[in-house]
Design brief:
By secondary structure, the chain is α/β, with parallel strands linked by helices. It has a single domain, classed as Rossmann fold (3-Layer(aba) Sandwich), CATH 3.40.50. The chain has 6 helices and 10 strands. Strand 8 and strand 9 form a beta hairpin.
């Protein structure tokens, strides 16, 4: 069995990011060929930000089945899987970044923090490396562990949810590191991925030890 599959829609930033972190990723899965791929051969599947929504929606049942059988799915926004994944009711809501140019201002900060106790991913990636902007947010819901929250706990930008009764695991994010890093825009996104892919590889090994 392989560790990590990476679903690519063909965007140049997605391809470059795959090349950057291919030491941690087993295969690139072209989204247009999903019907030919058995996702169950991967312990984890990563869906990058700015993926082809129409094609993902066409294969929603495939991802539902993957999670139902114990798979580990990580989706970055804007992938809007709340519109096509049915096995989990993803509670997305409209919420924009208050100040997209916060990083250009002395003492500026994005309106986010990592809640305590910190999720293991947050232990591997500091909040500064999770901060650039975001697309929407999630409501808190039972059984999900927040990873990155909005100030005043208005909602979260990333959560980790384990499905009940032997199901899989879902990490959802409204931040978009993959394409930015691949296009060499916003250094924090590259720092995020420098922590994320080693963490994911280690997490998969730990869960299947």
């Amino acid at each position: 069995m392989k560790d990590i599959g990476y679903v690519c829609s063909g965007d140049g930033g997605q391809v470059t990011t795959f090349d950057d972190y291919r030491a941690y990723i087993d295969d690139m899965i072209y989204v247009m060929e999903l019907d030919r791929v058995d996702l169950q051969q991967y312990r984890a599947i990563v869906i990058p930000d700015f993926s082809n929504q129409e094609v993902l929606a066409r294969h929603a049942g495939k991802f539902d089945d993957y999670l139902a059988k114990g798979g580990f799915l990580i989706a970055f926004e804007p992938s809007r899987l709340d519109q096509w994944l049915t096995i989990v009711d993803v509670p997305w809501f409209e919420r924009g970044t208050k100040d997209w140019k916060w990083w250009m201002k002395p003492g500026g900060r994005l309106e986010v923090y990592q809640p305590e106790p910190k999720h293991p991913m947050a232990e591997a990636i500091p909040v500064a490396d999770m901060s650039w902007h975001f697309f929407g947010a999630y409501r808190f819901f039972p059984g999900a562990q927040p990873i990155l929250n909005l100030d005043n706990d208005e909602g979260c930008l990333m959560f980790d949810y384990r499905l009940p009764e032997g199901g899989g695991r879902l990490i959802c994010s409204t931040i978009d590191p993959v394409v930015h890093s691949g296009r060499r825009f916003m250094p924090a996104t590259t720092r995020f991925l420098n922590g994320f892919f080693p963490w994911l590889k280690a997490e998969v090994a730990r869960e299947h030890a």
